Amino acid sequence: MAEHQRKQAIGIVVSNKMEKTAIVEVTRRVQHPVYQKVMTRRKKYVAHDEQKAAKIGDKVLMVESKPISKTKRWRIVQILSTAS
Q1: Which residues, in sequence order, are CB contacts of 60 under 8 Å at separation 6+?
Q2: Cα separation, 51 vs 55, whole angstroms
């Protein structure tokens, strides 16, 4: 039986004011189905940050996980780049 592949997302930390929690904004570019114009779509996710290492502006890698709280369904795995 094949192992389930978890969803991954890369985003920017926009808030880290909560305890062991960060808000991560994921940006993706999509083409409009009729007008073919390229648009930017943004979505914010609440992610678990066990070490409290993520700072505002950091680029992070998240993976989907089991529900941690009412809104937390993602956890931060790695900090890809820090804010300068």
Answers
A1: 10, 11, 12, 13, 22, 24, 47, 54, 76, 77, 78, 79, 80
A2: 11
**Domain residue ranges in the chain:** 8-81
The C-alpha R_g of the chain, in whole angstroms, comes to: 14
Q: Quick one: DSSP state of residue 50?
A: T
Mean pLDDT of 7-29: 97
Q: Give the separation between CA 13 and CA 45, rounded to whole angstroms.
A: 10
Name the class of domain 8-81.
Answer: mainly beta
pTM (2 decimals)? 0.89
